[in-house]
């Protein structure tokens, strides 16, 4: 059963890559997304080590970086407030 899921995943990733590479518009989308991803990771890194938020340390993982990529600065506020409420 695992083999079926792996084959299905690899096949769908291959087809997605073929569609993305064929379309020039997708290259612009990929570069913008990667720029946002790198900017979010650097912003979280600087936030952690600048000392602005004493007592809080936001982990650099796909969930927090994804939240900041999607929401921007409100995403950082959301992650910090969730950390304060939950911990």
From TrEMBL:
InterPro entries referenced in this protein's UniProt entry, alphabetically: BofA
A Pfam family matched in the record: BofA
Protein name: Uncharacterized protein
Native species: Paenibacillus baekrokdamisoli
